[in-house]
Automatic annotation (TrEMBL):
Its cofactor is FMN. This is 4Fe-4S binding domain-containing protein. The keyword Metal-binding applies. PANTHER family: PHOTOSYSTEM I IRON-SULFUR CENTER, PHOTOSYSTEM I IRON-SULFUR CENTER-RELATED. Keywords: 4Fe-4S, Iron, Iron-sulfur, Metal-binding. Pfam families: Fer4_21 (PF14697), Flavodoxin_5 (PF12724). The keyword Iron-sulfur applies. GO terms for molecular function: 4 iron, 4 sulfur cluster binding; electron transfer activity; FMN binding; metal ion binding.
């Protein structure tokens, strides 16, 4: 079984490719949280996989909270994990494994797949150019058959990661600050004159933090900064502070030029 989280579709696409090849069930973590489903029966020879984007050089808050409640019918199951990131993922997998250890699991095989950038709320952070976006996705397509064969063969000890230059600094200092202080919905606004009241932002929010058209953020304390509301708005009516007014939007296959 594969548990996944996605904000802008990159990780969903990767998880779907793996699911198609290994034939295991795919679960969207926010749906499981909505249903309160945390206990799972494993079938004969089934693996446990986690796919999620890197958020501030750590697993996203929603994924970490989900894991604390998870339990499985069997121990000693082959477990693997994959994170997508725009650039590098630091010690994300070390943090994930610490969280997994608390529920008696370890991801013994780990991958990072670089995908188009989705974080745009800080200076010097932009969406990728169309060229870079395509280059990243093409490379990911080339990596997938290998990733799939490692998982199929239940190979352990594989660590194909993109940690960056000073991963501990990024994950435990900068990322810790980012996740503690900057993952929130405080700066979201909507331009009511621009909003066409399509309801997309409410629909895509994984934590049901948006209501109505034009949208209102409920401030339910669960925003995971995935930026789905910002990126999927068809008319760029949503902003996070002033900075995103000068930024583009991205989600997987926004241009409609990716085959599945
Ligand atoms: C809140 C947030 C934090 C991010 N932090 C990082 C990061 O630390 N390193 C990185 O390389 N990319 C980072 N990114 C980019 C995403 O990891 C990357 O674009 C990912 O593929 C998005 O996956 P998704 O489309 O499944 O949401 C961040 C994106 C968001 C929204
Ligand atoms: S409010 Fe926006 S950024 Fe926060 S979880 Fe919902 S969609 Fe993601
Ligand atoms: S997605 Fe954009 S246009 Fe649609 S309701 Fe939300 S803010 Fe308005």
């Amino acid at each position: 079984m594969i548990f996944y989280f996605t904000g802008t579709g990159n990780t969903k696409w990767v998880a779907q490719q793996i699911r198609k090849a290994i034939g295991e069930e795919l679960f969207y973590i926010p749906d499981l949280i909505r249903k309160g489903q945390y206990q799972f029966e494993l079938k004969q020879n089934e693996t446990i996989g986690f796919c999620f984007p890197t958020h501030g050089w750590q697993p996203p808050r929603i994924v970490r909270e989900f894991i604390t409640k998870l339990s499985f019918s069997k121990k000693n199951t082959y477990c693997w994990a994959l994170t997508t990131c725009g650039d590098n993922m630091g010690e994300t997998m070390t943090i994930l494994n610490k969280d997994l250890a608390a529920i008696g699991l370890q991801a013994t095989t780990q991958f990072a797949v670089v995908m188009p950038e989705s974080y745009v709320c800080l200076p010097f952070m932009y969406t990728d150019t169309e060229e870079k976006e395509h280059a990243k996705i093409n490379l990911a397509r080339k990596m997938l058959p290998h990733i799939i064969s490692v998982i199929r063969e239940r190979t352990t000890g594989v660590e194909e990661l993109v940690k960056g230059g000073t991963p501990r600094l990024y994950s435990y200092v900068i990322g810790a600050y980012f996740n503690a202080r900057m993952v929130n919905d405080k700066k979201f606004t909507v331009d009511e004159d621009v909003c066409i009241k399509c309801g997309k932002c409410e629909k895509v929010c994984p934590v049901d933090n948006i209501q109505g058209t034009p949208p209102e953020w409920i401030h339910n304390g669960r925003c995971t900064s995935c930026l789905a509301c910002y990126h999927y708005c068809p008319v760029h009516a949503i902003n996070f502070g002033k900075i995103t007014r000068k930024r583009d939007q991205y989600y997987f296959n926004k241009r409609g030029d990716q085959k599945s």
